Amino acid sequence: MPARRPELAVPPRDPQNPREPGDHADPGEPGVLARSLAWLPYLLVLAGAAAGLFIAWQGSRYAGPGAALVGCALLAAGVIRLALPPRYAAPLSSRGKASDVLAFAVFGAGVLVVALTLP
Fold first, then answer.
1. What are phi and psi of 37, to 5 degrees?
2. Count of H helices and E strands in the chain?
3. Cα distance between residue 96 and residue 104, in whole Å
4. CB within 8 A of 72, min separation 6: which ones?
5. Whole-angstrom distance, CA of residue 30 vs CA of residue 106
6. What mean pLDDT, rounded, does the chain reach?
7. How far apart are CA 50 and CA 54, in angstroms?
8. I want to staple 95 with a disulfide (CB 3.0 to 4.6 A). Which of 69, 79, 99, 111 is the partner?
9. Is the model's pTM score more than 0.85?
10. Torsion angle of alpha carbons 92, 97, 98, 103, nearest 10°?
């Protein structure tokens, strides 16, 4: 005789919060536009870093300017992370604000130093 599978119990709805997963969001929650704009700083930093890598990829003559653009993009990420509130800087945040800003600043300054020392 095959074993019976247990019945899955449906959790009761909370009378204080009658929303279900498909219901409309609360007015206090950020809308689609706000969530989309939260990605804008991340995309700008990503575009700057990608442009810098593309420039550096063109040859050794362009390695310095390309690396400088990558370093500036990382420094800009640090400034953006420092200036924006957490809900708009979410894609740029991985830890606390101080450690994120410090990491972006150190890596950006390091890449800029390398870029400026290239012949």
1. -70, -20
2. 4, 0
3. 12
4. 48, 52, 108, 112
5. 32
6. 81
7. 6
8. 99
9. no
10. -10
Tens of pLDDT, residue by residue over 67-117, are: 999 999 999 999 988 888 877 777 777 788 899 899 999 999 999 999 999
Other Cβ atoms less than 10 A from the Cβ of 83: the count is 11
What span, in angstroms and rounded, lies between the C-alpha atoms of 104 and 74?
5
pLDDT on residue 20: 56
The position carrying tokens 């990382």 is: 74
Task: Pull the structure tokens for residue 61.
Answer: 């003559």
